[in-house]
């Protein structure tokens, strides 16, 4: 991979980290009664849009998220890790593709807010799909996918698999310790939230509903069922995941064949 393309991918990783840090900080502040709000990625961007220089920050964030989309699609089509042509390999590449699509949607939304459009048909295609006769079946399928993702995040946390995506050779001892703690805490919190999203989505689908739950729904569930302290801890875990992404951006394990 050329230096320009690698730097674009690094910028994307940092942009994703910034989104998670903002979600975590806003939700933690809300949990501890210090302002803020329980929010997901789009809510975090809406918060940015209301700040001074918010449009500029959103435009930069949108470009950064496109860098992350580029990296995910590079993983899909260039296969830098040399994944085998088997079910496991194709499964990972499909997951990378879905991740790229999701963050492409976030990038589009960031640009939409940056250029003054907070209205329109965002999510209308998904809304139409879910309101159809097969909405409950689609909700169940999405819920199962979320559950698999949640389990994988928890597996990554406690097997230290997340360290494979970071080149540790250039780190000092303090930075390595931060990587381990932030990565484990962040993946645990993210896995727990996605797991709750899966539970709520499956609950809706099995009850003949068609609601796909969001991070905000999961945060509200944690607040109602477990209290503000637990919500605050989970939210701080999101900040930890953001820190992990910053470290990943600084020391990415991108040692792959050139893409000229």
Mean pLDDT: 88
**Radius of gyration over all CA atoms, rounded:** 18 Å
* Most strands sheet: none
Domain unit count: 1
Unreliable runs? 255-260
User: Share of helix among residues?
Assistant: over 70%
Number of helices: 9
Order of helices and strands: HHHHHHHHH
User: Helix/strand-derived class?
Assistant: mainly alpha
Count of DSSP E strands?
A: 0
Strand content: under 5%
Could you tell me how far the N terminus lies from the C terminus, measured between alpha carbons in angstroms?
A: 7 Å
What shape does the CA trace take? globular
Task: Please outline the helices and strands.
Blueprint: H1 3-31, H2 41-49, H3 54-77, H4 87-114, H5 124-130, H6 135-159, H7 173-206, H8 215-226, H9 228-250
Helix pairs in contact: 1-2, 1-3, 1-9, 2-3, 2-4, 3-4, 6-7, 7-8, 7-9, 8-9
